Each structure stands twice: as structure tokens, then as C-alpha cells.
Amino acid sequence: MTTTSKNIAAIDLGSNSFRLQVIKLRRCGKKLKTDIIANDFYTVRLGENLNQTGQLSPQAIDRGLAACQLFAQHLVPYAPVSIRICGTEALRIATNASDFVMAAQNVLAHPIEILSPTKEAELTMLGCITDIATESNSPILLVDVGGGSTELILSTDSHPPNLCSLPIGALNITDNFISKRPESTANLTEISGYLRKIIEPALHNLLGNELCACHNLGLIASGGTATSLAVLDLDLPCYHADMVQGHQMTASTINKIINKISKLPLRERTKLPGLENRGEIILAGTKIYQTIMGITQIDTLSVSTNGLLAGILAQLAIVL
Known about the structure:
2 domains; 11 strands; alpha/beta; Nucleotidyltransferase, domain 5; globular; 13 helices; six-stranded mixed sheet; five-stranded mixed sheet
């Protein structure tokens, strides 16, 4: 039986971080196997102060283009036959997003697609579908907290997935509430109230009757906040995907982590494993999960190491 292989790549230009992944597709007859052969990640903070100014700052654009240059160099030895590059919330709302997109396209020599909120949620769902498939037949709420937005996806056996994207994320909540007072915990209550006003009606609309029976609802958390929390809870020296994948945390654990990290000065927080590039925004991202668990009264979440980037690659593989 003839076996063929080819490399494909995807880049996620997020509001907080840029990520690259290259996978090798191996087709043997009708079977298709995939292997991750390269990963790259840079904390860019493209959406830094975007809510205040409405624009990408020159510094953020420079950081983003520098990361794109490194991605372009990293891709060369893998010679992918197909590349898909996607932007999310920061590039959806910035008034000068086209300035960055045009420059980045020149650097990467490839077009950049700006995902709609719905498309971003769909691809996140696709990336996590294997995790959802391994759960019981109970409904699943997938929550992906990004830098500039949070995707909520309800998956049930009886209906197509119900999707919702909220314009709140770890970076823009940090910019709005924490950056000016990074060492203060006084504004955590203010953050909780703000998040609840946005999240509660969205969950009522998304879940409907399911919100009244959330003890039957499974909660899967994906994205950098979720995986960083797993690293902290497991007390790992560094990120290990195999150990983080499927790790479960209770609402009590989430509360304890918030209590611990909120008392640490920022310089100490960034020394914790998993928080080297996320110490400044981890509180805001964790508060989003805390708020969702509080509203739904779901006591346990499971962490997925997959998400948007995996979904982009999965859809790319389907069409090849």
C-alpha cells in the first residue's frame, strides 16, 4: 500500500500571542495520520490598550511583525504545501488593522484571513472535537478564553453546536482593570461584577434550559489561561501537553489559585512555571472561568490543550 506525506502549517495571530504549528499528513490508503513536527509561540500583546485607543500601537505592530519574521524563517525547512494564517479579535476591531495585515502579509508571503467571531468559535470547536467526543453523552460547554475574546460553545447530541463569542479576554480585561494597579487586589470585585453582567445573559441565551440543569453539563476549558492554570495546579516545572491534557480542576481549586496569585507581586507571579509570559494577564483570564463556574454552578472543568490552532489545521487537512 502506497504511503504519501506532506506538511501543512497554520498560524494563529491572537490578541495576546502568536502561534505557529506545522503538521505532517501521512496518507496510507484511506487512512490519514497526523504528526506535529514544529511549534512556535511568541507573546506579542497585539491588542495591548486596544480598548482605550481603538488602534494597534506602533510598538504592538513592531512586536507582531518581528514574530511574523521569525515564523517565516521557521517555516522554510518544512516547505509546507499549504498554509493558513488567521487573525482574531484585535484584528477584527482595530481601526488600523489593515496596516498590520498588509505588512504581515508581505513578511509571510501569504494572505491573512480575519475570522469572524462565529468562525473563530467554530474552528475552536473543531480543534477540541476529539476531547468532546471522549466525554459522556451529556452536553458539553467548551470555553476558550483568549486575549481579546472568549468563545462559548454548547455541544449536545441532539442539536448542532450553539456558538457565542464575547469581546472579553485575558488581555483586554487586564488593560481595563488591572494594568494601572498591577499590585492591587481591590479591583477583583469590580472585575467580577463587570464579567457577570456580560457573561450571565450570554449563558442564559446559549444554554436556555440547560442552565437549569448544569449538574449534567460538562465543562471543557481551552486556551493559554486554562493550560497555564493546569501547570500551576499540577506544580509542573514547565508545560507538558500530555500531562496538562484532560487535567481536571474544581471551582475550589480555581478560587485558591486566584487567592494565591493575587497576593503575589507581578515580578514574583511571572517567576511561576507557566506564567513566564502570562503573569500579568493570568488573573483576568482566571476570573472569566471563575465567573462562568459560579453562574452555572459547574464544579469541575477539564483542560484541553487543543483549540483554535488545531481547528485551523484540521479544516486545512480536510480540503487537501
